[in-house]
Design a protein that fits this description.
Length: about 280
């Protein structure tokens, strides 16, 4: 029988766990949505900024064909290692580059399409990142960046953040709330316009995210996201109790999203579209 302590263990590095558990359920569905919305097509030269393990790049590569080009850029060595090692057949046609969004290692106008999925909110200097994206776009090229909307419009994230604050203390949810730190559509529009983009428009999108259970979702949050740091700060004997209390709190809050086939909750983002 699996002990409570073993129940909360997931084997692998954070990038491995991210690819295994969060990409299929969250990142890949949003990647397909973003690629469809921005209209990646045959022959496009696409840059995926803050590509992580490469979900958007992989979806885009299936569309651009032999005459196109797809580059995935990320500052995280571990994420890129997973991207490069992936079994997906199209990975051979993707260039993986380690580098910062604040100083893109590309000449001006190299791409006709730049995308950034759920990454812009984390950049230390958002205006500079957007200026760099504008710089590497050819005239008439297009850019699209998605960010989460406010946490109160994303019930699972809000439930987890509130549980963390209750059981750990004010500020424990900082990392989770940080995912929603660019939720103001006017702010996003102004940032894009100030970076030199034209025709900026913002649209809202919603997908239903599914996990086998609340247990699974909470466990993955503590293993494959920055929330793992909250566990590393605790003695091993206290970790299971801590996560169990948070899980029970979240389960009570999300009871209306639990069905016979698992947990299914809405997740909302806004997408900024712009041209060079």
């Amino acid at each position: 029988m699996t002990s409570d302590a073993e129940k909360w263990q997931l084997e692998g590095s954070a990038p491995e766990l991210y690819e295994r558990y969060l990409v299929p359920t969250v990142t890949l569905p949003w990647a397909k949505d973003l690629v469809e919305r921005v209209g990646v097509s045959r022959g496009d030269h696409v840059l995926d900024v803050a590509c992580g393990t490469g979900a958007v790049a992989r979806v885009a590569a299936r569309r651009v064909g032999e005459g196109g080009r797809v580059v995935g850029l990320d500052v995280n060595t571990g994420m890129l290692a997973i991207a490069r090692a992936g079994p997906w057949s199209e990975s051979g046609g993707i260039e993986w580059v380690e580098g910062s969004a604040l100083a893109l290692p590309f000449d001006d106008g190299q791409f006709n399409l730049v995308v950034c999925q759920l990454g812009l909110q984390f950049f230390d200097d958002r205006p500079e990142a957007l200026r760099e994206m504008r710089r590497v776009l050819a005239e008439g090229g297009r850019a699209a960046a998605s960010v989460y909307t406010s946490i109160d419009r994303n019930p699972a994230a809000q439930a987890l953040a509130e549980a963390l604050d209750r059981h750990v203390g004010e500020g424990a949810s900082r990392a989770k709330r940080g995912e929603h730190s660019l939720a103001d559509a006017d702010e996003l529009r102004e940032l894009c316009t100030a970076a030199g983009f034209a025709g900026v428009r913002i649209e809202t999108a919603m997908l239903t995210v599914r996990f086998a259970s609340v247990d699974e979702w909470v466990r993955i949050q503590f293993a494959a996201t920055p929330l793992a740091a909250l566990l590393s700060e605790r003695e091993p004997l206290h970790r299971t109790d801590f996560v169990t209390r948070v899980r029970n709190d979240v389960a009570a809050t999300l009871a209306t999203f639990v069905y016979d086939d698992g947990l299914a909750f809405p997740q909302e983002v806004q997408v900024a579209h712009a041209t060079a």
